[in-house]
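Quick one: examine the sequence and C-alpha cells given here and explain what the C-alpha cells say about the fold. Here goes:
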Amino acid sequence: MPIPDLLQWLAMSRKTGTITANFSSIEKKIYLETGKIVYVSSNKEGERLGEYMIRSSEIGKDRIKAVLLKSQAMKIPFTQMLIDLNYFTVNSLTAFIATYARELLIDAVTWKDGWFEFIQDALPTYVTNGPIQLNTSELILKTVKHLDESSAVPVNQS
C-alpha cells in the first residue's frame, strides 16, 4: 500500500499513531492524532525541522535551539512554544508545517525502495496536544498534484 493511500485510510478512520518510513539511512515520521497530522520529522540532513526553519523563516539558529530547550524543559510541544513566544501565530505555523510536511512527503513518495510501518496509538509526549492539526486529505491532494505537475511533459505548441 503506498504511503498516500495509508494516510488517506488513517485520516478517514480517524486513527492516532505514528508512520515511520525508512529508506537507506533516512527516516521520516508522520504523527497523527484522530486522523490529522500533528507533527512530521526527518533525520535527513537539511530536512530536520530546525534546519528547515532556519532556511525558511527569519528565526535564527540560536533562537530555535533556545525554544527547543525551553519546550523540552517545560514538557510542552516545540510548536506550542513557538506560538507562546510569538515567533508564529497558530495560522502561520500551521501553514509553515503544512509546507514542510508536503516536502517530506514528496520525498518519501518518490523513494524507489524502503519500508514503512504504522504503530497505532504511539505518539511521543512532545507532539501530543500541540497546536498543529493538518488536514491529511488536503496534504495528500497537494502532494499528489505537485508530483503530477512536476512529472508532466510540456506539450510542443508548434
Summary: The first helix runs from residue 3 to 12. The longest strand covers residues 26-33.
